[in-house]
């Protein structure tokens, strides 16, 4: 389904396009260039739907998944105050 076809379906169901979410391995130097090309395609599709905003994030890395909701910085110690 093209963005145009998708966009045409939305009002038929009382919906409208809204900002989306895009994640990619921006932290992975070997895959960074492909991630940039992918976000360009994502942004173009959003524009075809009349949306000029998207949330962009890097994929979660294993260390971050292992420490949810507390943050994790493997190269520097964390400090907590009570």
CA-based gyration radius: 18 Å
> Runs with pLDDT <50, length 5+?
none
How many DSSP H or I helices? Answer: 3
Strand order of the largest sheet: 1-2
How much helix, percentage-wise, in residues?
A: 25-40%
Give the end-to-end Cα distance, rounded to a whole number of Å: 52 Å
Question: Overall pLDDT, averaged?
Answer: 85
Order of helices and strands: HEHEH
**DSSP strand content:** 5-15%
Number of distinct beta strands? 2
What class would the helix/strand composition place it in?
A: alpha+beta
Envelope shape: elongated
Write the layout of secondary structure elements.
Elements: H1 3-12, E1 20-24, H2 32-48, E2 54-58, H3 62-66
Parallel strand pairs: 1-2
């Amino acid at each position: 389904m093209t963005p145009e076809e998708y966009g045409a379906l939305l009002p038929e169901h009382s919906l409208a396009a809204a900002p989306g979410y895009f994640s990619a391995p921006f932290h992975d130097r070997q895959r960074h260039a492909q991630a940039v090309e992918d976000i360009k395609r994502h942004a173009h599709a959003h524009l075809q739907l009349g949306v000029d905003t998207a949330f962009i994030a890097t994929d979660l890395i294993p260390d971050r998944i292992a420490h949810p909701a507390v943050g994790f910085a493997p190269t520097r110690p964390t400090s907590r105050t009570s």
